[in-house]
Amino acid sequence: MAKLDEQIIEMLLLELNRISNDFLDELYNLINEIDYNNFDRKEYLKTEKQIDQIFLKYEVLYAKWVDRAISTGFSEGAAGAILDLEDAVTREEAFKIFRMTRNKKQIIDLIKKTTYNDLLKMTNNTKQQTKDLLTRVVTEVMKGKEYGRAEEDFSREIIRQLKQQIKKEMDFAIIDRAGRHWTIKAYSEMVARTKIMQSYLDGVETEALAREANYGLISAHSSKCNICRPWEGLIVRLRRDAPGNFPLLSGVRSIPGKKSIFHPNCKHHISPLRTLDVLPPQAKERNNIRKETDYFDIR
User: Fold this and answer.
1) CA–CA dist 255, 14 (Å, integer)
2) pTM score, two decimals?
């Protein structure tokens, strides 16, 4: 059963983390260079433009990363399907056989778009958070100038506290539906793992369908996840008209959130099959298959 090489994922994540770290370092350096005691509206507008330039630069780098990561995930999935269906003997041969079509490219482009939008949501939140905190600094400086020296000392203490808060909250990515705060690194890594695996599964499914495979076998690695564990080793149909009452893969994958086996950060994958006759005895037993007519009796 071919699966996405963890080394490929780690290589892509390392590249993504490098982008995120450089992004935060550049943002930190800009914030540290500010003379907060003289940070008036004019300086704020200047800094705001510099912030926008930094975010634009790294949004381009994130987009380039998405392009590489999703294309890699999909092509690895397609090659894996070719190997599992025994249409190639080696990974190198499988990649030579794989052909990009207009439909496959459209699928890849859609995953790239949603992946980039998720990362863009992260950068937009961070940018707004940073600007909001800097606005509070400007307000305190203006109050200090308005109220005189005694109040100015008080304002400078508040500025010191705000400066510390800026550094802390600059690494803010997003708040999920459960109210949890995600850092840029944690959120981007979650998005990356999820979308790379999604592109891999789409590569497997699309190539398998093109090669007239009817079924898929869900991987098993003794998952501790209560949602995933019952699905391990089970058969799914890739085609709606495939014999048997097995669940349809597209239906399983469309379940939103963490209710599906293929939830965010999930490591499960599928191995395509043209027929269930090739299943090993333990897999047939897991799916209650004793003879071909049992395909129609599975519930």
Assistant:
1) 30
2) 0.85
